[in-house]
Specification:
Largest sheet: none
CATH class: Mainly Alpha
Number of strands: 0
Helix content: over 70%
Structural class: mainly alpha
Radius of gyration: 21 Å
Number of helices: 20
CATH topology: Growth Hormone, Chain: A
CATH superfamily: MFS general substrate transporter like domains
CATH architecture: Up-down Bundle
Strand content: under 5%
């Protein structure tokens, strides 16, 4: 641990600005939940098209991750964040003005490109700019802005619910406001010191490192970063599949896929459909999404307090085991038509929000070696969005066929995830990125 004074306000400031990408991620993720009842009527969506309209965001996000990896390595993290902000703004307008189903899905795919870029670049940027003892908390700031985006969007959706058949257009168009703020803020962000050093711009890196910490921090950081970059010229996706680093990449892919296939995002995206099962009115369905957003926020803040104290692995185990049990209870309550199922679903949201949701992003941002970090994070996040597409595309069809028993599938996946974390994930709290690299590579 480097003994130095840190400019915590500066670190928090740049983390919050870059984490606005997370807010927009939360916006595009949540807005579909409130808009879907209107879209079903507007575009006559069946279960297939309902799943595709929701999941097209994930397909765009996969493309966004591919773009982000190249932009991040070739031009820097900051230009990538600015490009993501621009895509958010344009796609919000395109979705709001869509005249038919196909154009709406294409616009949501474009929004997904921005989401994919931000979902990769924001946590990576924050991880690279933060000192080791603050990194988990600062990366969790990105998850905090995601859940703020979800909560505020759910509140707006609920407010607009009775404004007519075109309420969904207003829901999407309001995304232009945070997009503009993100673009403006990203313009003033400093570049990642690790990227600068990797690209031969050491003096610029020193200036930024000095703003973050003192002289000792600058010297120690330069030494660690240079050591991790020895013999490396340019990373590629092929490098991430080399024998030395591939085990770490596989763990990252496993964590990313588990974060989605654990099933909780069906509650976020399809809350109205689930609560309709117990006879809730449309108003009550949308009100439940507000409660979900509120619980999500409270428990994400709890995760920020715990991630650098309790550690990454214990939180992941609590999340996986807790969800497996809660899903079994959800099935029983939905099958009996009990209104109390809302409390169990809120407990599941809270469990996920304090564990799997933020900790997965923290681990993905820190477990990969510096020489392949951009490509490896891109691969992991592409896997995450692929799993998200599978989840949200299949849920309407599965729920139509198996009803509440669908949640048994997610209980089994969570049990498998528990074993995966127990045997494969190593604790990384309090370590520098360079120390994590040595741990993951078995040195």
């Amino acid at each position: 641990m480097i003994k130095s004074s840190y400019n915590k306000f500066y670190i928090l400031g740049i983390s919050l600005i870059s984490a606005l990408g997370g807010y927009l991620f939360g916006f595009d993720f949540a807005v579909i939940s409130g808009a879907l009842p209107f879209l079903q009527k507007q575009f006559a969506l069946n279960a297939y098209w309902e799943g595709l309209a929701t999941g097209s965001l994930a397909l765009g996000a996969i493309a966004g991750c591919l773009v982000a990896g190249k932009v991040a390595d070739n031009y820097g993290r900051r230009p990538g964040l600015m490009l993501a902000a621009s895509l958010f703004a344009l796609s919000s307008l395109a979705m709001a003005l869509s005249p038919n189903r196909d154009i709406f899905i294409a616009a949501r795919f474009a929004a997904g490109i921005g989401v994919g870029m931000a979902s990769m670049l924001s946590p990576m940027y924050i991880a690279e700019i933060s000192p080791a003892h603050l990194r988990g908390r600062m990366v969790a700031v990105n998850q905090l802005t995601i859940v703020l985006g979800i909560l505020i969007t759910n509140l707006v959706n609920y407010t607009l619910r009775n404004t007519g058949d075109d309420a969904w257009r207003w829901m999407f168009s309001l995304g232009v406001i945070p997009s503009g703020l993100f673009l403006l803020g990203a313009y003033f962000l400093p570049e990642s010191p690790r990227w600068l050093i990797k690209n031969g711009k050491e003096e610029k890196a020193k200036v930024i490192l000095l703003k973050i910490g003192g002289a000792d921090f600058v010297n120690e950081s330069l030494k660690n970063i240079k050591k991790s970059l020895e013999g490396i010229t340019k990373s590629s996706y092929a490098d991430a599949f080399k024998k030395a680093v591939f085990p770490a990449v596989l763990i990252g892919i496993g964590l990313a896929v588990f974060q989605q296939l654990c099933g909780i995002n069906t509650v976020f995206n399809y809350a109205p459909k689930i609560f309709e099962r117990i006879g809730a009115t449309k108003d009550d369905q949308l009100l439940q999404t507000v409660f979900i957003g509120g619980v999500n926020l409270v428990f994400t803040i709890l995760a920020m307090l715990l991630v650098d104290k309790l550690g990454r692995k214990p939180l992941m185990l609590i999340g996986a085991g807790g969800l497996a049990i809660l899903y079994i209870i959800v099935v029983q309550m939905l099958s009996s038509g009990s209104a109390s199922v809302s409390w169990v679903l809120l407990a599941a949201i809270g469990t996920y929000a304090m564990s799997i949701a933020p900790v997965t992003w923290v681990l993905i941002s820190e477990i990969f070696p510096t020489k392949v970090r951009g490509a490896a994070i891109s691969i992991a996040v592409i896997s995450l969005w692929g799993a998200y597409f599978i989840l949200v595309f299949t849920f309407p069809v599965l729920f139509e066929k198996f009803k509440e028993n669908t949640f048994y599938i997610y209980a089994v996946i969570c049990s498998i995830g528990f074993l995966f974390v127990w045997y494969k994930v190593k604790e990384t709290k309090g370590q520098t990125l360079e120390e994590v690299e040595l741990t993951m590579l078995g040195h």
